[in-house]
Design a protein that fits this description.
The protein has two domains: 2-141 and 302-317, 3-Layer(aba) Sandwich (Rossmann fold), CATH 3.40.50; 154-300, Rossmann fold, CATH 3.40.50.2000. 34% of the residues lie in helices and 19% in strands. The protein is built from twelve helices and 13 strands. The longest helix is centred in the C-terminal third of the chain and has 19 residues, at 282-300.
Length: 318
């Protein structure tokens, strides 16, 4: 099967292109948002092939995976030589995000389409998005297993937030100082350097995935202060690494992290206390981290993810 999709979400796409198909990834000369091409900080197999606009227009494509409104509105048809996803080629619209804005009034850009399937990455998103009459499916996240790497040798918390300054309250950036007053916090992710020097934040840096995993696993716990998200893939990766979780009990996190794997609450004081006792009790942290890994492997394993997608793509092409 030949699948065309834009490189929009690096961590998600990394898992997706590990399937048994050929993946056509649009690339432009400037490698801008509409033509990033292959990832440069993730390990992708050779089956993920870069294509120019001219190559995409002439390519045999079995399925198109749309991920952004402007792809649906015209970008995909432009790249595909006038072929319209859904109308002329089988297509799904993959929705990575929870609705942003007045939730009760939010309509999905692919709502009321009889030629598409909207694929949500969490059941929470499926519940909150209004897709009208468009068919929906849920294919939960899967990740390439980084292996059990946990040492917990550093007595602090790792947190991964991309664009933490711009996204602010959405990612819980404003909570870092309050939590860092109780345990050291090491911040990772795109734009993390902008928060270097924040009181209590011990370090702030953006690292390639392999180095990121190694550094995360050295911290005693994984902190997830995000208020509103689908389900951060960094959280799923942290659980695979064998890290116990302390996080806000919001969105899909309450389904992903069982009590034996971490502490979830909407009370910042409860999270601070949980972080303190995990730092003080390395053995308990290790036991909870092993439970987190077992949960992540069972629910967010790569093969389950790929199998679910294969079933869906076969259905769409039928």
């Amino acid at each position: 099967m030949r699948i065309l999709l834009w490189h929009v979400h690096g961590a998600w796409t990394t898992a997706f292109v590990h399937g048994p198909h050929e993946y056509l990834i649009p690339v432009t000369s400037d490698r801008g948002p509409d033509g990033l091409g292959r990832a440069r900080t993730y390990a992708w197999p050779a089956a993920a092939v870069e294509v120019t606009g001219e190559q995409a227009a002439a390519a045999e494509v079995d399925v198109v995976v749309l991920q952004r409104p402007h792809e649906l509105a015209g970008l995909a048809a432009e790249w595909l030589g006038g072929r319209r996803p859904g109308r002329d080629l089988p297509a799904v619209y993959l929705e990575h995000n929870a609705p942003q804005g007045p939730v009760g009034e939010m309509r999905h850009p692919a709502a009321d389409r009889d030629d598409l399937v909207v694929v949500h990455v969490t059941h929470f998103n499926d519940l909150f998005w209004d897709c009208g009459t468009t068919r929906t499916r849920v294919v939960e996240h899967g990740v390439v297993d980084p292996g059990y790497r946990y040492s917990g040798e550093l007595d602090g918390a790792a947190v991964v937030l991309n664009e933490a300054v711009r996204r602010g309250r959405v990612t819980g950036t404003d909570l870092l100082g309050r939590l860092a007053a109780h345990v050291p916090v090491d911040l990772f992710g795109m734009g993390a350097e902008q928060l270097a020097g924040t009181p209590g934040v011990r370090s702030a840096q953006d690292l390639p995935q392999a180095r990121l995993h190694a550094e995360m696993a050295r911290r005693r716990l994984y902190l997830h202060p995000v208020r509103w998200t689908s389900l951060g893939l960094s959280l799923v990766e942290a659980m695979h690494l064998g890290m116990p979780v302390v996080g806000l009990a919001t969105t899909e996190v309450v389904e992903a992290v069982p009590a034996e794997a971490g502490v979830l609450s909407t009370r910042v004081d409860v999270l601070a206390e949980a972080a303190r006792w995990l730092v003080a009790d390395p053995e308990r942290a290790r036991v909870m981290g092993k439970a987190a890994r077992a949960t992540a492997l069972a629910r967010h394993g790569l093969q389950r993810f790929l199998d679910d997608w294969d079933r869906l793509l076969d259905e769409v092409r039928a």
